[in-house]
Amino acid sequence: MVGSQDAMRALLEPALSSAGLELWDIEVSRHGLRVLVDRPGGVDLDALAQAAGEVVSPLLDEHPELTPDGQFDLEVSSPGVERTLSRLDHYLRYLGSEVSVKTRVVIGESRRHQGVLVAADEEGIILDPMEGSSGRAVAIGHDQIERARTVLVWGPAPKPGSAQRKSTDGSGAVKRPAASGRKRAEQPVASRERDTE
Questions:
Q1: Cα 110 to the chain's mean position, in Å?
Q2: CATH number of the domain at 88-150, out of 2.60.40.10, 2.130.10.10, 3.40.605.10, 2.30.30.100?
Q3: pLDDT, tens digit, for every residue of 37-61?
Q4: CA distance 1 to 68
Q5: Residue ranges per domain, the chain?
Q6: Which sign, positive or negative, has the C-alpha torsion 131, 135, 141, 147?
Q7: Mean pLDDT of the 62-68 span
Q8: Most confident of 79-83, 129-133, 138-142
Q9: 5-80 adopts what CATH topology?
C-alpha cells in the first residue's frame, strides 16, 4: 500500500533539508517513486546519488508502508528546466514567469492555457495572456488544474533567410550559424532499484 504524498513529504523533507537539498515534489506510480530535489545553483549527479543512497532510500526502508508494494524503482532527480507546479509555494516562486496549465474542465473555451502567472493564492491562480494574444486574463482554481509547469523561454528565433550567409573573406565558403533550435536540457538522474521483500 502506498502512503500519502503528505506523509512521504513529512518524512523526507527534514532529512533532505539537513543535507542541503530542497524537496521539490514527489511522484508516485504503481511500480515507481520519483523524488525531485533541488538546491541553489542546481544539483549534480553526485548530490543526487548521495541523496538517493544516504537519505531517501534508508528512510523509505524504515517506512515500507509509504512505498509501492513489492519491488519498485526509486528515482531521485532534478526538477529540470521546465518545472511541474503543484503547490502554492511553487506558484508564488514563479510569479511573473510564463507557465502552461492544462485544466480538468473547459475554462474560457479551452482546457489548455499559457501565459504569465500574475497572481496565486489558496484559491487558485491568474494567468495573463502572452503579449500579442487577443485573449483575456483567466482565473483557474487549484481544484481545476490537472497539470501546470513553467515554460522555458528561449531567445528570439532567427530571422527568415539567415540560416546561411556568405563569408566576407572572399573564399566563397558558406558559414552556418550555431544551431539555435529548441532542445531540452539534460537532467541529472540517479536511479536505484529497491526490493522491499
A1: 23
A2: 2.30.30.100
A3: 999 888 999 999 999 999 999 999 9
A4: 6
A5: 5-80, 88-150
A6: negative
A7: 87
A8: 138-142
A9: GMP Synthetase; Chain A, domain 3 (3.30.300)
